[in-house]
């Protein structure tokens, strides 16, 4: 009897321990499930927050672009056909596009290009030539300007591809010399082409199709495309060449393809800017597209910060306005540019923004940090 009671007691203990173990396991499983749900919720919460933030950022950007257009448009006299203010705004926008296009090859890709004036000349002359033909078709002004700008950009992109293909193994000073030679060759070829006006210049370019509105939105859309392209996977590959070509090649990036992409992309937007420039001035002279013109755009890129698109935009605005203010002292313009560069290299070697970009989110964070530090 005693043995039976002992066995029953042992069995009860075993069943109790089994039940306790099962209960503990059930509790653990429930906790694990709850933790997994919490983690999943927190992950999705972060993603939702990030998406909301991106949406807010896009909305703020679009609103700021529209507000800037409205404010600038209000300062222009609509009754004045030859408005000085309108001319200044259009010139600034065109040079902003020049600066952003050169920033792709020099700042983001890290390849010293001194022949950007050549791509601008190719885009400008080809667009102007086609524009004189399209006048007979009486297209709407914006559509006309858009077609000729795309045509000028494509022709310039073809030459950008050819220049990139012929300089794949070059870098640094050697690449700078080749691109400089390309720019000078383009200038002298245009001077000897009679159907492009030769040395006297190409005149009769339709100026009535260009307005502040269509130039503004063409430039803004171009910058948006550049930003989207340079922040994509392909853009990161372009940026990797600037950081370290050997490391980029070792991780499987095809340098030749990426360089061709960078040069072609840069030349395309230089050609679009050249088209706008041609229709703004009305007469294209080959002497305008010399070495100094390329250096002038390069100064804008360096001042804003090599690799910073927002820096290139702001520097182009500053230097274009400065050159306009110094119109009465035009002989001292390059002297003042050089002084600005010397001061910049001493106190701010990386430029205004360096390689960083201006964003509303980072600006808010910095303002909060400054406020917290004061407290």
Helix fraction bin? over 70%
Instruction: Look at the helices and sheets and give the structural class.
Output: mainly alpha
| Elements, N to C (H/E) | HHHHHHHHHHHHH
Span from first to last CA?
82 Å
Structural Rg? 30 Å
Provide mean pLDDT, rounded. 79
Keywords:
0% strand; mainly alpha; 375 residues; globular
Could you explain the architecture of this structure?
The protein has helices spanning 2-74, 84-108, 116-134, 141-166, 173-191, 212-230, 233-243, 245-250, 255-281, 291-304, 309-325, 333-347, 360-374. With 375 residues, the chain is an all-alpha fold. Helix 2 (84-108) packs parallel to helix 6, helix 2 crosses helix 10 (291-304) and helix 7 (233-243) packs across helix 9. It is globular, with a radius of gyration of 30 Å. It starts with a helix and ends with a helix. Mean pLDDT is 79; it is low at 37-53.
